[in-house]
């Protein structure tokens, strides 16, 4: 059971539904941070944010929340499913069919909506209840203040009705995915209405339920929505950290672009104009297909940044990802020629751990293995140089710590076991070969390759010839991705398993790569196609390269609308 986040300021009872405890699920997967794009000249445009935007200066209504005192200004829209294909519903109108995807050169054998399905299921409207509040919210045509970039509320009563309808859906919901979605959407509406205490309460609880699902995309959405609330409250340090954590390279590009857009608006609020430029340009770069709405919104944001720069200058230098995530850099190995030994230096280049070792490994997870000249075995030290595990423990083979555990061996050739930083053996079963723990699982070999959890329980049977998880961002992962998927090899044929050990794609394909909304596969002739996320045929393997398949998927997703 994942514990609830303590909230000292509960939402008023006006629209709050009873908060159900999260249902226990898989451990949450952390989202990988994304480095900002370099600064370059930004286009300036006076285009309105949408065709409905007024041509006269916009005046904030009493329901518009302006930035906190002494900030520059900035805002964002609400987050919805990252790749949702659904009918758009205008407030007070009946649902209309979604636009057809652009014509393609590939043979699409599946349902586009199924292949592009996001972590959040599509809500449905019923004649009895009227348009679904989630659809109405997703299709809402927002206007933005030209300087603050915050949503302007023309009809607050309409938004309050949407919030009440979300509460009606939330009250009977008991499962983690539904509660995570509805609570975070209600947080969006409360934020726009200016009820920031209520929005904070819903946003925190939504993240608890999202993390209980262990689903990367759902967690990312909840983090981004909560970050947006924190931004409006002026809690920029925590907001920027959550935006960075949420923006994993394993998410669909359109969702990542929207997250960069909102992270940039948070920087704008703080007067970090160069950093805001970086985020806005990254948002445009990630949209590989025509996206007039995002382009217009981003150009409007760039206009606001340019105006602020003209008034106030460029602002602070852009922060590194480690600064945003509040990650301190560990000491790094450095060889001392004078004493012919290894030590460690801090970020400023000064020696922090004296050179006294014949060999060292880099710090990982707050600890590093070192070997003294007079010993063949390794000892473990912390970042201050204090000894955690003595060399007399007898470990000739050692692996770096990850998730609090490290693989060690007494002969360095096999019989690998897992220990914690106190030297206690946590997994005593000896394995022939091992990979570091990642998101609570590790690929190991005992006869064949499989995977175990941190208690040593087998979650993937030991029947594969290897784990080689290839991602479309160019990375290869030892074991499972942030999303909880792994590519397994069975005699040269590739398939996919999830973190429960279930086979999602049988190992029958010559080549396979994990895409944020699909699986790219190569056919026997070397041509490429795609499967949907349930392993069903989606694009026949008739295209010349996987890059062409990714471009085809981008076109199919051109009508999707992530709403932040």
TrEMBL record:
Matches recorded under SUPFAM superfamilies: TPR-like (SSF48452)
Location of region: Disordered: 1-59, 91-133
Domain of life: Bacteria
This protein's record includes keyword rRNA-binding: no
Keyword Calcium part of the UniProt annotation: no
Regions of compositional bias (Low complexity) in chain numbering: 10-59, 91-120
Gene3D superfamilies reported in the protein's UniProt record: Tetratricopeptide repeat domain
PROSITE patterns in alphabetical order: TPR
Residue stretches of each TPR repeat: 257-290
InterPro entries assigned: TPR-like_helical_dom_sf, TPR_rpt, WG_beta_rep
Classification via SMART domains: TPR (SM00028)
Annotated keywords: TPR repeat
Protein name per Swiss-Prot or TrEMBL: WG repeat protein
């Amino acid at each position: 059971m994942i514990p609830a986040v303590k909230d000292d300021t509960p939402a008023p009872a006006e629209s709050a539904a009873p908060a159900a405890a999260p249902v226990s699920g898989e451990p949450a997967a952390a989202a990988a941070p994304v480095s900002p794009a370099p600064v370059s000249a930004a286009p300036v445009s006076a285009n309105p944010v949408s065709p409905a935007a007024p041509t006269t200066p916009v005046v904030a209504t009493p329901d518009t929340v302006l930035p906190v005192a002494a900030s520059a200004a900035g805002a964002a829209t609400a987050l919805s499913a990252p790749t949702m294909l659904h009918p758009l519903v205008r407030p007070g109108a009946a649902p209309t069919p979604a636009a057809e995807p652009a014509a393609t050169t590939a043979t699409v054998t599946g349902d586009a909506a199924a292949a592009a399905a996001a972590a959040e299921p599509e809500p449905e409207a019923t004649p009895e209840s009227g348009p679904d509040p989630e659809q109405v919210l997703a299709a809402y045509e927002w206007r933005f203040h030209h300087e603050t970039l915050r949503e302007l509320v023309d009809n607050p009563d309409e938004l309050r009705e949407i919030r009440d309808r979300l509460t009606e859906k939330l009250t009977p919901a008991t499962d983690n995915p539904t509660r995570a979605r509805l609570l975070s959407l209600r947080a969006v509406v409360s934020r726009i209405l200016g009820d920031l205490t209520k929005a904070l309460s819903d946003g925190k609880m939504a993240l608890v339920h999202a993390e209980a699902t262990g689903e990367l995309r759902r967690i990312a959405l909840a983090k981004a929505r909560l970050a947006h609330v924190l931004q409006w409250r002026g809690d920029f340090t925590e907001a920027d950290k959550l935006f960075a954590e949420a923006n994993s390279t394993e998410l669909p590009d359109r969702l990542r672009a929207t997250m960069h857009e909102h992270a940039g608006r948070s920087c704008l609020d703080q007067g970090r104009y160069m950093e805001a430029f970086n985020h806005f340009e990254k948002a445009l770069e990630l949209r590989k297909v025509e996206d007039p709405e995002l382009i217009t919104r981003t150009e409007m944001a760039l206009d606001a940044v340019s105006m602020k720069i003209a008034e106030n200058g460029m602002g602070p230098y852009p922060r590194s990802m480690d600064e945003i995530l509040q990650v301190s850099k560990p000491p790094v190995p450095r060889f001392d020629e004078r004493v012919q030994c290894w030590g460690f230096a801090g970020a400023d280049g000064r020696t922090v751990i004296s050179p006294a070792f014949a060999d060292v490994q880099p710090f990982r997870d707050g600890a590093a293995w070192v070997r003294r000249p007079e010993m063949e075995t390794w000892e473990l030290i912390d970042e201050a140089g204090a000894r955690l595990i003595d060399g007399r423990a007898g470990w000739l083979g050692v692996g770096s710590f990850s998730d609090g555990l490290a693989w060690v061996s007494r002969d360095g050739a096999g019989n690998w076991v897992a220990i914690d930083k106190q030297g206690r053996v946590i997994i005593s079963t000896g394995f022939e070969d091992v990979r570091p723990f990642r998101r609570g699982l590790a690929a190991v070999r005992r006869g064949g390759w499989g995977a175990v959890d941190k208690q040593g329980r087998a979650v993937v049977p030991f029947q594969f010839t290897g784990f080689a998880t290839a991602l479309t961002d160019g990375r290869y992962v030892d074991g499972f991705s942030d999303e909880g998927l792994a590519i397994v090899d069975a005699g040269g044929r590739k398939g996919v398993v999830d973190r429960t050990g279930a086979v999602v794609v049988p190992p029958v394909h010559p080549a396979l790569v994990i895409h944020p909304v699909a699986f790219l596969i190569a056919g026997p002739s070397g041509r490429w196609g795609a499967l949907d996320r349930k392993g069903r045929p989606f694009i026949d393997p008739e295209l010349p390269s996987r890059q062409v398949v990714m471009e085809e998927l981008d076109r199919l997703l051109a009508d999707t609308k992530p709403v932040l």
